């Protein structure tokens, strides 16, 4: 979760300067691709170029995730629109582009549900059917009322200051599209866009996912080595080979109380912790298919809130994601911290973990926590 800028306020310091706000639609995937590419360019379809050309430096883009119905970011336009077909997004070119900088940004899991803002946004007013609210979210860019834009800015600032994780669950794929007339200078143009879908929560019993397997293996390893273990509070109902993570031996339901409530809220969402008494011996974030960035943000938040603690941090991911892990750990955001993540965070491959666990089974109870150092590697870039 990040905020690389702050909203510009008027001379009283209490109200955002009047500006133009535009809706900017993303999917979970295109939002991550936008951020992975440097978060400096937003793009739209070729047919929307006439509308994109109305954008000016200083305008705000309100970033909304379709199919999960969440606000995830505020971008500020920093220059003139332009046409460019160089690849950024895998699903489509989106060549009508505008340079931007991030004002506020969060991962999808920490986004603001739009339905939580029913009483703040004018798009929910005077609906004949309260379930038919998704019309204003079917095409972008679209100009929004300043009052609505300011409400979204405030909501996202709260999400950055007081993060609440809401797991995405299993998304129901869009099976149809609707023809939507586009307003503005290209009046009369029709786009076929996906119908806003709902989110189908993931079942509690998610037998067999790789993420759950690795979480289970690390939890069992920690318990066998004599540590208490803490599983992320939103993962305790997950199951691996018939065993629920919340029923594992030596499971610690409550975290040590030496941390303040804000720190505890961050710690309890880390995928797995090993504990010895009140001390955290190791922390693990498992990145199988989800955004690596969200796990790193939890790690960095922990370091920022508790700069004097020394907890070994481990990112556990498949071999094919090794390069992405190293790239993300070395982002300027994390490199410029008082304690850069590179100095405290190490990488463990899924395959290396499995192979070493199998080899260590005869003597696993004699292992010490520093055994993790022997099976992990530095996150320093390969060319350093």
Note down, in words, how this protein is organized.
The chain has 2 domains: 21-200, ph1033 like domains (ph1033 like fold, Roll); 210-378. Strands 1, 2, 3, 4, 5, 6, 7 and 8 form an 8-stranded mixed beta sheet that branches. A 6-stranded mixed beta sheet has the order 13-16-17-18-19-20, sandwiched between helices. The protein has helices at 28-36, 49-52, 146-161, 210-224, 261-267, 292-305, 322-329, 332-335, 350-360, 371-375; strands at 21-26, 41-44, 60-65, 70-77, 82-83, 96-105, 112-113, 142-144, 170-171, 177-181, 190-194, 199-200, 228-231, 239-240, 243-244, 272-276, 279-286, 313-317, 345-349, 377-378. Residues 4-8 and 170-208 have low confidence and may be disordered. The radius of gyration is 23 Å and the shape is elongated. It is α+β, with helices and mostly antiparallel strands and 384 residues long. The longest helix is centred in the middle third of the chain and has 16 residues, at 146-161. It contains 10 helices and 20 strands. 33% of the residues are buried.
